[in-house]
Amino acid sequence: MDLSLKPDLSQAQRAWAAFWRGELRRPILQIIVPSPNHKGIRHPYPMRPDRDPVAQARQALACARDYEYLGDAIPSVMMEFAPEQFATFLGAKLHFDPVHPGTGWVLPFVDDWDDVDITLQRGSEGWCKTLEFIRAFRRICDGHMLVNAPVLSAGLDCLAAIRDPEKLLVDLLDCPQKVDHALAGVRCAYHQIVEQFAVELAWDQRGSCNWNNMYHPRRINTIQCDFSCMISADMFREFQVPCLIEEAGHYDAVAYHLDGPQAAHHLPALCQIEKLDIIQYVPVSSELPEHIECVYEQSLSLGKGIIRSVSLQQAMDIWHRWPDRKLIFSMWLPTRKEAQAVLDAFGQ
User: Fold this and answer.
1) How crowded is the C-beta side of 298, counted as CA atoms within 13 Å?
2) 9-306+316-345: what fold?
3) DSSP 43
4) 71 membership: H or E segment, kind and range
5) Segment 273-284, tens digit of pLDDT
6) Whole-structure pTM over 0.85, yes or no?
């Protein structure tokens, strides 16, 4: 595989492969800088299923050409309509605000769990549009950058989207068996969806990126449960951890999107998932720096790697303290000179 936007792709692929095997003697460095002829082209996110996929793919490629991908960074585009796009594969409808266009949201449709069959709806608009867009994006982007699958928010996140978060919280107490049954349906659909995406995106031949732009020569993804901020550690272990274990089993490398301090109390349970490699923590704007550092330190002390946006000094400090952990440092830098200083510091 060759990518015009990453002339040294084979070198980066070797680094990522060594990283996942635990053989890379440095952190992964994802460094992106503006191209010399930077034009400030806007990235088309989220994609709009009601608009021309080819035009959006061309805009995504033009935006990608606005940057250079240095170190281990690999150019890719995530083909996503909305955070809960997974739920549309089960029949949910998306809503976009016509006055304030932006992120799309799923409209809940479950009034009673006894009245729905949680299965992949291959004829649903969400599923058909996703495949149409993936194929259009590949026609435009292949040979230049990778096309990523949308975020697959399954498990309790999916049930919250199709039921309503407050109603799901009540269901977890009033009818936990029905929630378990619905989760089993989600897990079955997840398997079918992943296997279809593996074919559509040629994961086993080209490798893949997740939405954090981590690369693996075969299959990688990010799993998550934003709903977890509203439930106890015991409830998380009972209902969500089995889903995460099964989801992780579909991939060769796995990251977890830990969204905010109210979800951080689940770290001990998460770090017991053997196939989970990386914690991606997203602090809130009001969060104290010391608490943010505590989350990263806990992740590392429990044996997992981290992905983090850092300065050069932060990167060096973390690497010196945790040289045996999987560390991914992401940097958007203004100049090639600054990027080269980072690469030189790690002997790359």
Assistant:
1) 19
2) TIM Barrel (3.20.20)
3) P
4) strand 67-71
5) 999 999 999 999
6) yes
